[in-house]
Design brief:
Elements lengths: L1 H16 L44 H13 L3 E10 L3 E7 L3 E6 L6 E7 L11 E9 L9 E7 L5 E3 L10 E3 L9 E7 L11 E12 L4 E12 L8 E8 L7 E8 L7 E8 L12 E6 L4 E6 L1 E5 L8 H9 L1 E2 L1 E9 L4
Parallel strand pairs: 14-18
Antiparallel strand pairs: 1-4, 1-17, 2-3, 3-16, 4-15, 5-12, 5-16, 5-17, 6-9, 6-15, 7-8, 9-10, 10-11, 11-19, 12-13, 13-14
Length: 345
């Protein structure tokens, strides 16, 4: 009887050690899984984005992935640097490679703003393009210059707005006009401070992102101000390769973010500097049409390249680039504050 009981106990323990399928058809494995044959996962394979997807664990055929990359490139139409306007005599533009790469210069301390217009011939006109974001090549600074630089742009159908040459960097170069209650646009500026601040924690180069959003429920414009810090170890704002905005799908209440790419000798290359509000893809809006550049010092310059504006292969389709950016990012965000914004005029 004792032997039979022991055998029954051993059998029960062995059965308990085998993962079981629950009533919903799910099974949890405490360890890995090796199969001699193919594994059919018709519902897909979920990979945690928080840790990324190493090559040998990505569960994606490499040839298929290369094809997806080509499709992504195909749905990222280029917007060329078209023409410009100079506000103030202290700024100038050198068309290093016409339509592709321009150098923006600040020669004196007098106020001055450069407006760079983009031509978007491949985004379509008067349609719903399924716009999801952009990648803007930008080299912010020249060696030895500590002057702050500010890039300004609007997202979504802009409505009535005001342009102001920034007498100081804290002014909004682009902002809504007084009385505007348009819920479509987002007015965004990004200010890069080129001096390493050892007094802050963590020490590094501050980056300020401001986003003006109209809140229909409160009937007021709100300013979302995010402070990030580029770590001072092996990197600085002059190492920037690009600025990128991405949102996960078209719509107002969707996830979005702003990133900079760095080419510094650092493992942190894709740097998240703000969480943003998504924009609605409208019939009459065809992507970012202009950029504005300000600098607060003399003998400073930046380079801008032709922008890639990203759309989806099918309207209302998700933006895979957003998830990829989130999976690979290093978050630099230190704080976000919200205040009421009063239009200038």
């Amino acid at each position: 009887a004792t032997s039979a009981a022991n055998s029954a106990t051993a059998a029960a323990n062995a059965l308990a050690a085998i993962p079981q399928v629950d009533d919903a058809g799910n099974m949890t494995l405490p360890g890995g899984l090796t199969a001699a044959g193919a594994i059919n996962a018709n519902g897909g394979v979920n990979i945690p984005l928080a840790v990324g997807a190493p090559t040998d664990m990505s569960a994606v055929n490499r040839l298929y992935a290369a094809g997806l990359a080509a499709v992504t490139e195909a749905f990222s139409p280029q917007s060329f640097l078209s023409d410009f306007s100079l506000y103030g005599g202290s700024v100038a533009v050198e068309q290093t490679v016409p339509g592709q790469v321009w150098r923006l210069r600040k020669m004196s301390a007098d106020p001055g703003t450069i407006q760079i217009n983009l031509i978007n011939p491949f985004l379509g006109v008067s349609n719903y393009s399924g716009w999801h974001g952009f990648v803007l090549p930008v080299a912010l600074g020249n060696t030895g210059s500590t002057a702050a630089r500010k890039l300004t742009f609007s997202l979504g159908r802009p409505g009535d707005f005001v342009k102001k040459t920034a007498a100081e960097m804290d002014m909004f170069t682009l902002s809504p006009a007084s009385g505007s209650t348009a819920s479509f646009p987002r007015f965004v500026d990004v200010t890069f401070y080129m001096v390493n601040d050892a007094a802050i924690n963590p020490a590094g180069y501050p980056v300020r992102v401001r986003e003006l959003v109209y809140d229909s429920a409160q009937a007021k414009w709100l300013c979302y101000e995010t402070l990030s810090v580029i770590p001072s170890f092996n990197t600085n704002p002059s190492c920037n390769m690009f600025l990128s905005y991405q949102q996960d799908s078209p719509g107002r209440d969707v996830r979005a973010g702003l990133w900079i790419g760095s080419n510094a000798a650092d493992s942190r290359r894709l740097l998240c500097i703000a969480d943003m509000h998504g924009v609605v893809d409208t019939f009459s809006w065809t992507g970012v049409g202009a950029l504005y550049w300000d600098s607060d010092g003399t003998n400073s310059h930046s380079y801008l390249g032709a922008m890639r504006q990203m759309t989806a292969p099918g309207y209302n389709q998700p933006n895979g680039a957003y998830d990829a950016f989130r999976a690979l990012e290093t978050r630099l965000i230190q704080s976000t504050t919200v205040t009421e914004f009063t239009p200038y005029e």
